[in-house]
Amino acid sequence: MFCNAEAFVRAVLLLATTLCLHLIWTPPYNAAANERVLVPTGHRLHRNVDAIMMFNLRVVPFPLLGRIFFWTVAIGESLQNLTSLFGPPSGHHTALNIPLPVFTLLCIVVIIGCAIRHASYRALGRLFTFELAKRSQHKLVTTGPFAYVRHPAYAGWFIMLVGIAPLFLGWPLHVLPNVVGIPLLMYVYGMMGVISTSFALRMEFEDRLLREQFGDEWERWRKQVPNKLVPYVI
Predict the structure, then answer these.
(1) Where does the sequence pass through the membrane (predicted)?
(2) What is the rounded CA–CA span in Å between residue 232 and residue 230?
(3) Crossing angle of helices 4-24/62-83, nearest 10°?
(4) How far apart are CA 184 and CA 32, in angstroms?
(5) Domain for residue 159, yes or no?
(6) pLDDT single digits (tens) 107-158
(7) What does 47-104 look like in DSSP terms, one character per residue?
(8) 3 in a domain, yes or no?
(9) Is residue 92 part of a domain?
(10) What is the distance between the alpha carbons of residues 87 and 93, in angstroms, rounded to a whole number?
């Protein structure tokens, strides 16, 4: 049985983490179709991956489903956690079985990733879109997190994934019937993989696009900020 303080800490940490994910999973700006020009990519794999991601952004829509999924898991975990004050936990919720120090570290990792991605949203302002796009009146942003790496929003995403998997993605198999939990988990893991692959492919293409558009200005920035994701590393 968790002590009162531990149960409360777990609930607060998980709900705070989910709030951060909610903010990051919400598009900061919804530009009208005539305000942006979608940029096709020449790489076949990139085109296919981006097509899958765009379908899930516009038709499914994945960002809304993601927010619902995270809040469902967080509220379920937190309620289960708090009921442990009155008896032993059922063991169905995998995050409850993570030792508190590791649980805390995972939440902090997700929050750090969210903070980096949110700082990128703020630095880009209305230039940011979930789609790969070149906006009218586009400008080269080199401030905020872009002063340290060239693709901080993607860095934030990959950091978030480290904590998301153990905190949230075991829930469908342990709580839902297999006929629901297995397809749901396959879809979530599949979309995480699609998004991560798209981001990895986008970095090279975006660098080339910005170099073509901004020329010497981009080259100066690249020399000042040589790393894509992690300062002094990669």
Answers:
(1) 7-25, 98-116, 154-173, 179-201
(2) 6
(3) 170
(4) 31
(5) yes
(6) 999 999 999 999 998 888 877 766 666 666 678 888 999 999 999 999 999 9
(7) HHHHHHHHHHHHTS-HHHHHHHHHHHHHHHHHHHHHHTTSS---S-SGGGGS-HHHHH
(8) no
(9) no
(10) 15
Task: Note the pLDDT of residue 86.
Answer: 61
Q: What is the largest CA-CA distance in the chain?
A: 65
Domain residue limits at 152: 19-27+43-85+98-224
**How confident is the model at residue 45, as a pLDDT?**
63
> Does the residue 194 lie in any domain?
yes
Task: Name the residue with tokens 């020329």.
Answer: 215
Q: Model-level pTM?
A: 0.82
For residue range 34-79, list pLDDT tens digits in order. 555 555 555 666 666 767 766 666 666 778 888 888 998 888 888 8
Taking the C-alpha atoms of 67, 69, 71 and 77 in order, what is their torsion angle to the nearest 10 degrees? Answer: -160
What's the domain count of the chain? 1
Distance CA 220, CA 217 (A): 5
Strands 133-135 and 36-38: antiparallel
